[in-house]
Amino acid sequence: MVGEISQDIVTQPGVLPGKAHGWFRRWFGRVWKVRGGGLYACGYAGTFIFLEIRMVVSEIAQSESIVQFFTEQLLEFVFRFFGESFANMIHAFMWPVEIIQWNSPYGAIGLGFAFFAFTRYLKKPIEHWLFGDENT
Question: Measuring CA to CA, which residue among 91, 95, 69 is closest to residue 80?
Fold first, then answer.
């Protein structure tokens, strides 16, 4: 997979966004199925992506240069990156708690409304985007 990505970057850089969309869609489809296919699945995926991006941005900001960032990431990838990603996964599992604690009691009311509105208005379009091309 990494070799294929590298080859695409060198020979056909214009195809990378389309392939990234496909990768994201497959990943999100798996999360959707495993996490129950609703607002919880979307919240989990969104929270995990946000935490991962924040982690990478903070790593880049703390490095003295981009070269140092990549060197440190290559050297510490197995230990620190996976450890922080695991912590991000745990935080992503608990995203409803963060919403409820954000502004009680309005956080709980907003979360209840979001579950109702999501099921009514957003679930079918998301499922069509994720699985519309599959014969199910």
Answer: 69
Residue 60 contacts residue 67 (beta carbons within 8 Å): no
In terms of pLDDT, which residue wins out, 51 or 104? 51
b vs e for 10-19, b when ≥16 Cβ sit within 10 Å of the residue's Cβ? eeeeeeeeee
Q: How many CB atoms are located within 10 Å of the residue 61 CB?
A: 8
CA distance 33 to 88: 20
For residue 127, the surrounding DSSP H or E stretch is: helix 123-131
Residue 40 CB coordination number (10 Å) = 15
Q: What is the pTM of this model?
A: 0.64
Helix axes 16-34, 2-11, angle to 10 degrees: 150
**Which of the pair, 107 or 135, is modelled with greater confidence?**
107
**Residue that wins the pLDDT comparison between 39 and 59:** 39
- pLDDT at residue number 135: 46
d(CA 105, CA 129): 34
